[in-house]
């Protein structure tokens, strides 16, 4: 790629982007964490200095282990136990994404983590729905169009997946686009929650599964072949099924072939993977190889607070590591939009009327 035409940071921010994998409780503004702790009486924060707190999250999440990384969510969930707090966090997330050029986003969270002070699961979803609507309205007022949907996660270590799947279906017409399982992967295989996935399938519901992040191919295989996942949350360890010979030729194993042949979207989250130890660095992240092999790769933030990242900074990191140009970035974006849990006509509308004209302008 000609480096004189390398996308600038500001151009990357302006480019239309699609985000499928972003945790609501992993994307709070540090200032909001401090303010909500104060207004809701949460006294567990490691510091109430906004800058120090932002740094604390990044450092604490930078542990090389998913289990340690997940411990940091105690504080974000701790300040999100009221309807007002949930609505504020959701509205700010949508506004922040829109400011960063995201035109379609799926925000995920586990409703069961927000019931410590007596909210019902339905009240949690209703509060987030109100916040998302408010965020979309505020972004529109600033000339930043964004459509946002919710994905409801069940936590793998709890036993509430069927309840959360039912909650997902109950709220499917008011902004909840699908279901997921999150939390520690090792020791909690996807089939533990098979009933919930069967419920989703029998109700024509969408779901993705966190698989192939902290555990390997067995997890991906179960997620796809036993549970019927439409997409893989991370899925980065599908690279373990690629054999690279001395002359650089790559051979795909049967599972990798299946994932590529059936165009299963990989919700790849480069910075998060470096923090949890799933990849040694962005330059050595399997993203580059998987994209070269034409897997259906998508770019995602996972947790903007813990990784101190944004969609445009993830794009920038990939451009720096792999030399991607606008055509590549448009391809990742269209991959994501094709894979969204949104009606087909709406996906097409975003691709044809927002993404393609946006990139055409940047490539001109
Ligand atoms: O990367 C992740 N893998 C597994 N679980 C995760 C990841 N990032 C966040 N979570 C968990 C912590 C949150 O509380 C929960 C729902 O958003 O999902
Ligand atoms: Zn995740």
TrEMBL record:
<dbReference type="Pfam" id="PF00962">
    <property type="entry name" value="A_deaminase"/>
</dbReference>
<keyword id="KW-0862">Zinc</keyword>
<dbReference type="InterPro" id="IPR032466">
    <property type="entry name" value="Metal_Hydrolase"/>
</dbReference>
<feature type="site" description="Important for catalytic activity">
    <location>
        <position position="234"/>
    </location>
</feature>
<keyword id="KW-0546">Nucleotide metabolism</keyword>
<comment type="similarity">
    <text>Belongs to the metallo-dependent hydrolases superfamily. Adenosine and AMP deaminases family. Adenosine deaminase subfamily.</text>
</comment>
<dbReference type="InterPro" id="IPR028893">
    <property type="entry name" value="A_deaminase"/>
</dbReference>
<feature type="binding site">
    <location>
        <position position="183"/>
    </location>
    <ligand>
        <name>substrate</name>
    </ligand>
</feature>
<feature type="binding site">
    <location>
        <position position="21"/>
    </location>
    <ligand>
        <name>Zn(2+)</name>
    </ligand>
</feature>
<feature type="binding site">
    <location>
        <position position="23"/>
    </location>
    <ligand>
        <name>Zn(2+)</name>
    </ligand>
</feature>
<keyword id="KW-0378">Hydrolase</keyword>
<protein>
    <recommendedName>
        <fullName>Adenosine deaminase</fullName>
        <ecNumber>3.5.4.4</ecNumber>
    </recommendedName>
</protein>
<dbReference type="InterPro" id="IPR001365">
    <property type="entry name" value="A_deaminase_dom"/>
</dbReference>
<feature type="binding site">
    <location>
        <position position="23"/>
    </location>
    <ligand>
        <name>substrate</name>
    </ligand>
</feature>
<feature type="domain" description="Adenosine deaminase">
    <location>
        <begin position="16"/>
        <end position="356"/>
    </location>
</feature>
<feature type="active site" description="Proton donor">
    <location>
        <position position="213"/>
    </location>
</feature>
<feature type="binding site">
    <location>
        <position position="302"/>
    </location>
    <ligand>
        <name>Zn(2+)</name>
    </ligand>
</feature>
<feature type="binding site">
    <location>
        <position position="210"/>
    </location>
    <ligand>
        <name>Zn(2+)</name>
    </ligand>
</feature>
<comment type="function">
    <text>Catalyzes the hydrolytic deamination of adenosine and 2-deoxyadenosine.</text>
</comment>
<dbReference type="InterPro" id="IPR006330">
    <property type="entry name" value="Ado/ade_deaminase"/>
</dbReference>
<feature type="binding site">
    <location>
        <position position="25"/>
    </location>
    <ligand>
        <name>substrate</name>
    </ligand>
</feature>
<keyword id="KW-0479">Metal-binding</keyword>
């Amino acid at each position: 790629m000609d480096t004189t035409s390398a996308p600038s940071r500001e151009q990357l921010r302006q480019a239309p982007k699609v985000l499928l994998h972003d945790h609501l409780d992993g994307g709070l503004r540090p200032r909001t964490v401090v303010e909500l702790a104060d207004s809701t009486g949460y006294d567990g924060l490691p510091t109430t200095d906004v800058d120090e707190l932002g740094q604390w999250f990044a450092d604490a999440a930078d542990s090389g282990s998913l289990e340690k990384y997940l411990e940091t969510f105690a504080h974000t969930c701790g300040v999100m136990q009221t309807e007002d707090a949930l609505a504020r966090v959701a509205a700010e997330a949508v506004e922040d994404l829109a400011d960063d050029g995201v035109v379609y986003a799926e925000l995920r969270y586990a409703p069961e983590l927000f019931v410590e002070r007596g909210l019902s699961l339905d009240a949690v979803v209703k509060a987030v729905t109100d916040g998302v609507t408010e965020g979309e309205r505020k972004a529109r007022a600033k000339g930043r169009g964004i459509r946002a949907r919710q994905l409801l996660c069940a936590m793998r270590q709890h036993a509430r997946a069927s309840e959360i799947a039912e909650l997902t279906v109950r709220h499917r017409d008011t902004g909840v686009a699908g279901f997921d399982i999150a939390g520690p992967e090792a020791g909690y295989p996807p089939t533990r929650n098979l009933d919930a996935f069967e419920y989703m399938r029998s109700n024509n519901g969408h779901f993705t599964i966190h698989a192939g992040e902290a555990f390997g191919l067995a997890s991906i295989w179960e997620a796809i072949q036993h549970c019927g996942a439409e997409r893989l949350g991370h899925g980065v360890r599908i690279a373990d099924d690629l054999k690279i010979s001395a002359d650089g030729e790559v051979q795909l194993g049967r599972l990798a072939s299946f994932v590529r042949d059936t165009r299963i979207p990989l919700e790849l989250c480069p910075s998060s993977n470096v923090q949890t130890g799933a990849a040694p660095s962005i330059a050595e992240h399997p993203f580059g190889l998987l994209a070269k092999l034409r897997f259906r790769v998508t770019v995602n933030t996972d947790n903007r607070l813990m990784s101190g990242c944004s969609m445009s900074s993830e794009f920038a990191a990939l451009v720096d590591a792999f030399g991607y140009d606008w055509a590549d970035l448009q391809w990742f974006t269209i991959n994501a939009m094709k894979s969204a849990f949104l009606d087909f006509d709406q996906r097409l509308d975003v691709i044809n009327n927002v993404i393609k004209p946006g990139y055409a302008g940047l490539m001109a």
